Amino acid sequence: MHEALLYEHKSEAAVRCGLCPHACLIPDGGTGRCGVRANRGGTLYSLVYGRSIAEHVDPIEKKPLFHVLPGSRSYSIATAGCNLNCRHCQNADIAHLPRLRGVPDADQRPPEAIVAAALATGSRSISCTYTEPTVYFEYARDIAACAREAGLKTVFVTNGFITPAAVEMIAPFLDAANIDLKAFSDGFYRDICGARLQPVLDAIRCYRRCGIWIEITTLIISGLNDSPDELQQAADFIAALGEDVPWHVSAFYPAHRMADRPPTAPAALHAARAIGLAAGLRYVYTGNIPGQGGEDTLCHACGALLIRRRGYAVASRAARGGVCPDCGAYCAGIFNHAEAMP
Fold first, then answer.
1. Phi/psi zone of residue 163: left (φ > 0), alpha (ψ -120 to 50 degrees), beta?
2. How far apart are CA 276 and CA 273, in angstroms?
3. Least confident stretch, 3-7, 100-104, 208-212, 270-274
4. Distance CA 181, CA 175 (A)
5. What pLDDT sits at residue 287?
C-alpha cells in the first residue's frame, strides 16, 4: 500500500479524503466510495498504487484527443476503480470491480516501468484512461512526473469529478485532459452517475485555469441528455471557457445497466454539433459514427482542411505544427512545430 495524498485526520482515527467531491469520511478499517482508498489505523492508503491492470498502445484520437500530437500513439494504462457509478459504463468490469469484489491482485508496475514501456513502443504520450485516473491519483502523478523527465506527454481521460486541490497538485506534470461533461443536468448526474454536476463544472474551469489543454466529451443518450436547451447550456458553458476548446459529441451504444436503450442516431449528433458551432465553438466533433463527417479539423479562419480523420486514424494532413498552410492561422492545441502534424 502507498500512503494517499489529500486527506486529513478526524476524530477517532477517521480520515476525510480530499481527492474528489464525495469527500468521504472513512473510519478506521473502511474504504471510500471508490473502493481503492482505505483507512488503516488513521492513515489513508491507495490500494492500487503500481497495480496497472490494463496496458495498451492506442491512437491518441481514441481518447478522444484531436488536438494533442495528432496521429501519434499513446501508451494507455489503468488500475481498477472509479469514483462514479455510471449506469452506462463501458468499462464496468474493471471500473466497478473494487466495490464488488475488492481490489484485484496485479504485478507491481512502478512508474519507471510504465514510462520505459511507453518509450519502447514509440508512444509520445501516456494516457491514464479506461477507468478513472482520479482514484489512482498518486500513481498517475508519479507516472506523469517521470514521463515529463523522459520527454513524454501525459494525459487524463477523466469524468472530471475531482477537487480543485487535486487538479492544482498534478497540474505541473499533466499536459492534457479529455473531460466528460456527461450532461448539463444535476438530475442526470445524480440518477445516472451517482454524482453532481457543479463539481464537474468547477473542475473543468480549474483544469483550464491551470493551463492544462482540455477537450470535452458528451456522450449523447436519446431522451436523457439530448434536449436542445440542455445542449445549448453545455455549448455556452464550453464557449465561455474559450472558443478554442474542442467539444466531442459522441454516440451512445447500449452498455452495462443501460443495455435496453437504443444507440444514438447520427442525426442527433449532427444537431448537437450544429448547436456547438452556433455557440461560437471553433472545433466540434462527432464521435462513434465514423464516415458520417464531423471528425475532420478545419481551419477556424478560412475553412481549409487541416486534418482528415477516419475513425481513430489520421487519413491526411495539410498543416505544419498546427499552422494553416492557406492563411497562416494557428490551430490551438499541442503540436510539434518542427514537423508536419504527426
1. beta
2. 5
3. 100-104
4. 19
5. 93
pLDDT at 143 over 80: yes
Nearest alpha carbon to residue 199 among 220, 223, 181: 181
Q: HEC profile for the chain?
A: CEECCCEEECHHHCEEECCCCCCCEECCCCECCCCCEEEECCEEEECCCCCCCEEEEEEHHHCCCCCECCCCEEEEEECCCCCCCCCCCCCHHHHCHHHHHCCCCCCCCCHHHHHHHHHHCCCCEEEECCCCHHHHHHHHHHHHHHHHHHCCEEEEEECCCCCHHHHHHHCCCCCEEEEECCCCCHHHHHHHHCCCHHHHHHHHHHHHHCCCEEEEEEEECCCCCCCHHHHHHHHHHHHHHCCCCCEEEEECCCCHHHCCCCCCCHHHHHHHHHHHHHCCCCCEEEECCCCCCCCCEECCCCCCEEEEEECCEEEEECCECCECCCCCCECCCECCCCCECC
pLDDT at 338: 43
The closest of 159, 153, 126, 129 to 53, measured between CA atoms, is 129
pLDDT in tens, 216-269: 999 999 999 999 999 999 999 999 999 999 999 999 999 999 999 999 999 999
Structure confidence at residue 337 (pLDDT): 52
| Chain position carrying cell 495528432 | 70
Q: Is 169 in contact with 134 (CB distance < 8 Å)?
A: no
Domains parsed from the chain with CATH numbers = 2-46 (no CATH), 54-294 (3.20.20.70), 296-342 (no CATH)
pLDDT band at 97 (very low <50, low <70, confident <90, very high): confident
Q: What angle do CA 265, 267, 272 make, to 5 degrees?
A: 105
Rounded to 5 degrees, φ, ψ at 97 are: -55, -45
Binning pLDDT at 50, 70 and 90, where does residue 1 land? confident
Q: Give the percent of the chain with pLDDT over 90.
A: 86
